[in-house]
Design brief:
Layout (H helix, E strand, L loop, with lengths): L5 H27 L1 H5 L2 H12 L3 H23 L8 H39 L2 H7 L4 H40 L3 H11 L2 H28 L5 H31 L2
Helix pairs in contact: 1-7, 3-7, 4-5, 4-7, 5-7, 5-8, 5-9, 5-10, 7-9, 9-10
């Protein structure tokens, strides 16, 4: 007995292609609504507060402990080569280039991304989006676009907070606890970190991750089945897909930025 038919495969492929096309159209539409969002700053401000301020505590706490670990592990390696004074440089480069944008994006996906998916999914389940369409109100313009651009703006700010707190954590462990010279810690960091190549590329990374995570969260909520189980599955898909997309994009961006 055949467990599948060619028609089933064709239907599955067509459905996936249709989903990709619908997602691409939604992404282009969100990008085109940047001007409309700028004309209503109150909506954007409220969403930045919701996504950014409510994620600030977990971002700062995580950054502090990541800085602790980076300083401790970095010192154990650097002292083998007599380069313990370069600890500040190692900690800062690790944060602004990689760990700051990547870990912030993963935490953002788990905290703010799931909230966005659940919120939009519940609107879909409660037929609020359909009601807006019946009243000639575009839900993409009114609901999705402000949240999308708020996530794009909030992500680099959160990544900057993560990196800054991480450097402070590295200083606490390296200088206060271990005893690395404070002048060497800050001096090596200032001399070795390039504002454009290191910090600037980190900001670009965090902005790309903000676009990716926020769009995945909104898309999954927008296409979620209007049932409690459908919203639950959409929330799970948001975390999985956004995390994998961030890690894959991190490899591509790192290869383009720091290897050429």
């Amino acid at each position: 007995m055949s467990w599948w038919r060619p028609s089933d495969v064709g239907y599955a492929v067509r459905s996936q292609l249709a989903g990709v096309g619908a997602g691409a159209r939604l992404f282009v539409q969100l990008l085109s609504l940047a001007g409309a969002v700028a004309q209503r700053p109150a909506l954007l401000r409220d969403q930045i507060h919701f996504l950014g301020n409510h994620s600030l505590s977990i971002i700062a706490t995580s950054g502090l402990f990541v800085g602790f670990v980076l300083a401790l592990q970095g010192y154990n390696v650097l002292q083998l080569y007599g380069s313990a004074n370069s600890l500040g440089l190692v900690v800062t480069l690790g944060l602004v280039r990689e760990l700051g944008p990547v870990v912030t994006a993963l935490l953002f996906a788990g905290r703010a991304g799931t909230s966005l998916t659940a919120e939009i999914g519940l609107m879909r389940a409660g037929e609020q989006l359909s009601a807006m369409e019946m009243m000639a109100v575009d839900p993409v313009r009114r609901i999705l676009a402000p949240r999308f651009w708020a996530g794009v703006i909030a992500m680099p700010l959160l990544a900057a907070v993560f990196s800054a707190v991480g450097v402070l954590g590295g200083w606490l462990v390296g200088v206060v606890l271990i005893g690395v010279d404070s002048g060497a810690f800050w001096g090596q960091m200032q001399a070795g970190v390039d504002v454009v190549k290191d910090v600037g590329n980190g900001v670009v990374k965090s902005a790309v991750f903000g676009v990716t995570v926020t769009f995945v969260a909104l898309l999954q909520g927008f296409v979620a089945k209007p049932t409690p189980e459908g919203v639950s599955r959409a929330t799970t898909r948001t975390v999985v897909m956004a995390s994998l997309a961030v890690l894959a994009l991190d490899f591509v961006l790192t290869a383009l930025m720091f290897s050429i």
